[in-house]
Design a protein that fits this description.
By secondary structure, the chain is α+β, with helices and mostly antiparallel strands. It has 2 domains: 77 residues, Ubiquitin-like (UB roll) (Roll), CATH 3.10.20.740; 74 residues, Alpha-Beta Plaits (2-Layer Sandwich), CATH 3.30.70. It has 7 helices and 7 strands, in the order ββαβββαααββααα. It has a 5-stranded mixed β-sheet, with helices on both faces. A two-stranded antiparallel ribbon has the order 6-7. Strand 6 and strand 7 form a beta hairpin. Helix 2 packs antiparallel against helix 3. The protein is globular and about 60 Å long. The chain binds FE2/S2 (inorganic) cluster. The site of FE2/S2 (inorganic) cluster has 12 residues, from loops.
């Protein structure tokens, strides 16, 4: 992989071909906020909180830093009026789902996002997909899946698989930015594991 030089926030940054803008920024200690990204998982591009301005050959576009590949002479702006406005809007939308999430509150403070801008949603899930993808890609168990569509879309445990696989795992819990996952698991556990042996249930 050859070396590439790009410019991020006015700084010259060296990167390897094939790296994303997010990886290049991180290697230079330049912070770009993320919600759906995790280094253990394939890039997903779901939340768009990592949106940055990318300028190449005189044209500027808004891109997701976690997906966009570096290229020679690319100019990246990780903060600008436009970028901050987009992040604020994304956060306001997500805060309708998870107004009490500590991570969301911190980000809301940084970007001046109003948690009451949009009507509250009945689901705390912000659809980052971290749990679904971790279970599929790392654990290769596929116990968690997206269900429903549109505004009703959220994640759910598949009860039969969860009863077998989750009680001694729960590695996905710390990945969830909103605690929705834990709630969904305990609900599944309470409603759908009645046939579990007592000693297994006690460990959950
Ligand atoms: Fe890039 Fe979510 S972190 S889209």
């Amino acid at each position: 992989m050859s070396d590439i030089t790009l410019n991020i926030d006015g700084r010259e940054v060296k990167a390897k071909e094939g790296m994303t803008v997010l990886e290049a920024a991180k290697s230079a200690d330049i912070h770009i906020p993320t919600l759906c990204h995790n280094e253990m998982l394939e890039p997903y591009g779901g939340c768009r909180l990592c949106t940055v301005e990318a300028e190449t050959r005189g044209r500027t576009k808004l891109v997701a830093a976690c997906l966009f590949p570096v290229e020679a002479d690319l100019i990246v702006r990780t903060r600008s009026e436009t970028v901050d406005k987009i992040r604020k809007l994304i956060l306001e939308f997500l805060l309708a789902h998870a107004p009490d999430s500590e991570k969301m509150k911190e980000l809301a403070k940084e970007y001046g996002a109003d948690k009451d801008r949009f009507p509250k949603s009945s689901s705390f899930c912000i659809l980052c997909g971290l749990c679904v993808r971790y279970c599929a890609e790392v654990k290769q168990k596929n116990v968690i899946a997206f269900v429903d569509h549109g505004a009703k879309r959220e994640i759910n445990f598949i009860p039969e698989l969860a009863a077998q696989e989750c009680w001694d795992c729960k590695e996905c819990f710390p990945l969830c930015p909103t605690s929705y996952l834990q709630a969904a698991y305990h609900l599944t556990h309470a409603l759908a594991f009645p046939t579990l042996k007592l000693e297994t249930a006690a460990k959950a």
